[in-house]
Every structure is written in structure tokens, then in C-alpha cells.
């Protein structure tokens, strides 16, 4: 199978080659980290690579634009694909293997298995993107089994995804540890995302900063004792006034299991939102802190 070398990093396309590399590392007593991605890498992804390099001896980064998690064919079609630039970033970051399987390798003819996680995948993004989390759980399950990684690193920007993947690994007795890493943000607070590069209309990128600002302010208001319902209604109105076309959801959930929460009641909570701006779907979430503490200060 094709194998290219970029500095010390190897690019592998076949699961047999990945397994061979992992077997070699294991024979030498090395631990293995996995950073699953769909490419179009930004500093959020690279921070996951850095976390993996700190925690494990050898780091695999997968790049696979997974068709089964796209509920919208146009979104799949236009998803940014910049493999050469990604490979250079990963080599510079010190990743050991870039694993880039093809769709035919991941889903060969006759493929018939879906991993479906109930509970935490329901509501929020799950309610608006039918089949999305089945696609995520299935591909991440395959990546865990293919890589046999000791730990896998995910960004908290996709807070619900972290819950789905953790549940999947626990339920299927897959020994890969799921590590959640803090969301990386631009200077104005916008969560880093491969989709941000689609915000190309005049003023769109600036308007996007209203999403984290609105969530931060709402989280502070709730932590300060204001009632959840009116605070969330005002936050929704603020996003629409800022130019967002649609707010799919803006909700408070219990951080531990994503159960809906109508009031804080002293439990660690999270505000989560998905909203459309100029045809781009943005998601974000922030912790709800006790009064007086800085929302951004949470680990
Ligand atoms: O977060 C993503 O980029 C994807 O959902 C993931 C985890 C790589 C699965 O395709």
C-alpha cells in the first residue's frame, strides 16, 4: 500500500499498515495516542496532537472525512479537503503517523454495521442532524479498534460528541481512554472550527464572535442566579439581532450526562448552542460557573 514520508512522520492508508506500525511500537513497550480528525486542521486540532504527545509515546492522527456522519450531501461535498497542508502541519507538530484511509477501505462493499448510542446522542445536535451520531460512533469505534490506541483526544467544542464516544467505548468494552481537551478560541472568542473558513461574506467572521459572547454572558447571568428560561430567550434574541439566521438550539444541560436542566441546583452545567450564520452552522458550548468566577477559567 502507498506510504509517503514527510520528515519523520509516515502517512499510511491501509489498516494492515497501521496495525503493523502499532505492533512494532507495542513490542518496544510504547503507548499509543490517537487524534481522530476530518482534516482541514487548525490550532484546535494541533492542541489535541500536543496533548497526545504529552500523554503517549506515539501519536496517530487520522484524517477521514466520514460520509456516514453527514446528514446533508452538500455539506459533505463542500467539506474542506487540504491533505498536503494538513500533512505538513502534522509533521511539524511531531505526529508519528498520519492515517488517511479511503472511503472504500473504511466502508467496503457489503458493509452493514452501525454503532448507535442512545441517550446522550438524543437532542441537541442529535435532534437536528439525523444519523449524525450513528456515523460518528461507528467510525470512531472502527478507528479505536484499528489503532488499538491507549488514549484518544477530542475537543470539548464537540461536547455532545465527547459524551457519545465515551459511552460507546464504555459500553463496548473498548479500552481506549477518551480524553476531552479544552476548546481553542480565536482572539474574539470564536471556537476554532474547520467550518470557520467558510465565513467569507463581508462582516460574517466578525458577526460570528456574537456566539461565544452571548453564551458567556448567558452563563454568567445564570450562575448569578437569573432564571434560565428568560436568560436563554434573551440570548437567542441577541444572536438573531447579531445576524444569525437560525438558532437550532440553545440549552442548558447537566455537564455529567447532558440531562436537561431547568435550573442550576448546584450541579455542573453547560450551555450548548448551534446557530446558522451566512449558511454556516456553528456550534459552541461553555460551562456555567458559580457566581463570581470567570467562565473561561474552567479547565
Ligand atoms: O470531530 C470530528 O472531526 C469527527 O466527528 C470525528 C471525531 C473525527 C469522527 O469522524
Task: Describe what this molecule looks like in 3D.
The protein folds into 2 domains: 4-181, Rossmann fold (3-Layer(aba) Sandwich); 194-288, 2-Layer Sandwich (Pantoate--beta-alanine Ligase, Chain: A,domain 2), CATH 3.30.1300.10. The relative contact order is 0.12. It has 11 helices and 10 strands. The longest helix is centred in the middle third of the chain and has 16 residues, at 132-147. It is α/β, with parallel strands linked by helices. Helix 7 crosses helix 8 and helix 10 runs antiparallel to helix 11. Bound molecules: pantoate (PAF). The site of pantoate has 10 residues, from strand 3 and helix 7.
Outline of the structure:
With 299 residues, the protein is of the alpha/beta class. It contains eleven helices and ten strands. The strands form two sheets. The chain has a seven-stranded mixed β-sheet with strand order 1-2-5-4-3-6-7, with helices on both faces. Strands 8-9-10 form a three-stranded antiparallel β-sheet.
Question: How would the blueprint of this fold be written?
Answer:
Blueprint: E1 3-6, E2 9-12, H1 15-27, E3 32-37, H2 43-55, E4 58-63, H3 73-78, H4 83-93, E5 97-99, H5 103-106, H6 124-128, H7 132-147, E6 151-155, H8 159-171, E7 177-181, H9 204-208, H10 210-223, H11 228-241, E8 246-254, E9 269-277, E10 280-288
Helix pairs in contact: 7-8, 10-11
Amino acid at each position: 500500500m502507498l506510504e509517503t514520508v514527510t520528515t519523520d512522520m509516515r502517512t499510511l492508508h491501509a489498516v494492515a499498515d497501521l496495525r503493523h506500525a502499532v505492533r512494532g511500537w507495542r513490542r518496544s513497550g510504547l503507548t499509543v495516542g490517537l487524534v481522530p480528525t476530518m482534516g482541514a486542521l487548525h490550532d484546535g486540532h494541533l492542541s489535541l496532537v500536543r496533548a497526545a504527545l504529552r500523554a503517549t509515546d506515539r501519536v496517530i492522527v487520522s484524517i477521514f472525512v466520514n460520509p456516514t456522519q453527514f446528514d446533508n450531501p452538500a455539506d459533505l461535498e463542500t467539506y474542506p479537503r487540504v491533505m498536503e497542508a494538513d500533512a505538513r502541519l502534522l509533521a511539524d507538530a511531531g505526529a508519528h503517523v498520519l492515517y488517511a484511509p479511503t472511503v472504500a477501505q473504511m466502508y467496503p462493499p457489503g458493509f452493514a454495521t452501525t454503532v448507535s448510542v442512545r441517550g446522550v446522542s438524543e437532542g441537541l445536535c442529535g435532534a437536528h442532524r439525523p444519523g449524525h451520531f450513528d456515523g460518528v460512533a461507528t467510525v470512531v469505534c472502527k478507528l479505536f479498534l484499528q489503532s488499538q490506541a491507549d488514549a484518544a483526544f477530542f475537543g470539548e467544542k464537540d461536547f455532545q460528541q465527547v459524551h457519545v464516544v465515551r459511552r460507546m467505548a464504555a459500553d463496548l468494552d473498548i479500552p481506549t481512554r477518551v480524553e476531552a481537551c479544552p476548546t481553542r478560541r480565536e482572539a474574539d472568542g470564536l471556537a476554532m472550527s474547520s467550518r470557520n473558513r467558510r465565513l467569507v461574506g463581508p462582516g460574517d467572521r466578525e458577526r460570528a464572535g456574537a456566539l461565544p459572547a452571548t453564551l458567556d454572558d448567558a452563563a454568567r447571568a445564570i450562575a448569578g442566579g437569573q432564571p434560565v428560561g428568560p436568560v436563554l430567550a434573551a440570548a437567542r434574541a441577541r444572536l438573531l439581532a447579531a445576524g444569525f439566521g437560525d438558532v437550532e438550539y440553545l440549552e442548558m444541560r447537566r455537564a455529567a450526562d447532558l440531562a436537561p436542566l431547568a435550573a442550576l441546583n448546584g450541579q455542573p452545567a453547560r450551555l450548548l448552542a448551534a446557530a446558522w450564520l451566512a449558511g454556516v452552522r456553528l456550534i459552541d458550548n461553555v460551562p456555567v460557573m458559580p457566581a463570581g468566577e470567570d467562565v473561561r477559567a474552567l479547565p
